[in-house]
Amino acid sequence: MNQQGPPDFPPRTPEMPQLPKLPELPFSPKLLLFIPVVLVLLLAVWRSFYTVQAEEVAVVLRFGAYHSTQEPGLRFKIPFVDEKLIVPVRRQMKQEFGFSTPGATNRHQYSRGNEQESEKQMVTGDLNAALVEWVVQYRISEPSEYLFNVKNPDETLRNASESVMRETVGDRTVDEVITIGRQEIEAEALLKLQELTNKYAMGLRIDQVQLKNVNPPVPVQASFNEVNQAEQEREKSINQANGKYNRAVPQARGEAERKISDAQGYAIQRVNEAEGDAARFNALYTEYMKAPAITKRRIYLETMTKVIPEIGKKVILDEEAKQILPLLNLDTPSK
């Protein structure tokens, strides 16, 4: 029994042309082994070069151990042997305590949930409560210390910052914390926090510790504001009184100095006049001793010359005159 193959579909007719046969490509099993090698080499070349941005450095690990720190630019590493860790050493980072700023890229910038309320609740040195919000700004100064000396250094910094701030606030009264002692608290907290990070070798440099909102607890805020307003009014009254005092006292002192100067000038004038009168009298006495009669008559005439013009119109009678009518000038109108 002869077996025939399946019939052509569609059936081949003599009029249909024959299709050309495709050439058969040579195939070798070694080609399958060569393709993965090429892919591995391409991947190795692709992973050998990397770029470090301007604000970053790359910490290179070789076989899991620290090898070197690479500066910004195009860098090379041994593929499958070296590993790079990018650290933003030129970027200033911050951590917020008691509040949060939306859109933060650093997941350690602020705490979550109810932790913010517990962070800002503090007790001052005089056993009063205060709500303290603050910010810590820092940079990574030593990348290798930051990566390898402390596990989770950002979270450790948050804990250290909260501890330092509670210690600093606990050494001061509530009035100092809320009003006059803010700058001292910031400076002391910055110094203590930097010393603590250096002790832990965290590779961080603290740039600034800044207090934000510092308030009494919510139930007593109204009363505290009234007390604060009263203190401000008192300070205002004291300043106004000091201003009036500073204006009145110099004016009184100036008036006193003027009167003293006038008195001293008058005294000098009186002394000089007395000395002049004494000198004139002595000179007149000397002339009188030389010619008493002549000097006496001259003095009399000089005196009458000054006195008579001052007494106005007068009539002088002789003691021996018997009548005064002939002496009256009736033609002259009286004044």
Task: List its traits.
48% helix; alpha+beta; 17% strand; Protein HflK; 335 residues; 4-stranded antiparallel sheet; Tetrahydropterin Synthase, Chain A; single chain; 3-stranded antiparallel sheet; 8 helices
Describe it for me?
- There is one protein chain.
- The mean pLDDT is 83.
- Among the domains are: 45-87, no CATH class; 93-216, Band 7 domain (Tetrahydropterin Synthase, Chain A); 218-276.
- The strands form three sheets. Strands 6, 7, 8 and 9 form a four-stranded antiparallel β-sheet that branches. Strands 3-2-5 form a three-stranded antiparallel β-sheet, with no helix packed on it. Strands 1-4 form a two-stranded antiparallel ribbon.
- The protein has helices at residues 30-48, 115-120, 143-148, 153-169, 174-180, 182-200, 221-290, 292-307; strands at residues 49-52, 57-62, 65-70, 73-76, 82-87, 93-97, 121-123, 129-140, 204-215.
- The radius of gyration is 56 Å and the shape is elongated.
- Helix 4 (153-169) runs antiparallel to helix 6 (182-200) and helix 7 (221-290) packs across helix 8 (292-307).
- It is of the alpha+beta class and 335 residues long.
- It is built from eight helices and nine strands.
